[in-house]
Specification:
Blueprint (H helix, E strand, L loop, with lengths): L13 E6 L5 E8 L2 E8 L2 H5 L1 H26 L1 H16 L2 H29 L1
Length: about 120
Amino acid sequence: MADRSGAVEETRGAVAVRDTDVNGTVTSGTVTDGTVTEGTVAKSESAKSDPNALVAQIEHTREDLARTIDALANRVSPAGNVRMLRSKVREQLARREVQAGAAAAGAVVIGLTVLGIWARRRRHG
């Protein structure tokens, strides 16, 4: 989404860009899982003609692109999705309510199994 100032913000794996200065300085950052990595890129004419500034800007852009590609690869990776699912399950199993529910469900299953065995023995016995 962009507003009148040119600010662009998205939630994950996106680049947020804001005009912060009248001099043409632009602050950009990559947002990944709620963490914002900030960097500054100059838009002035002197920075555009300075080879060292151009090399620094290209390197910064490459790093941002590499982080974005890594974030996208992690999202679509089956192994990454399994790891994320395992992590969420572990977090849920650590909660007291879930442990109590699992214990109750286990007690019901054991009770029904014992009842079924007892009913069979009674019919055949």
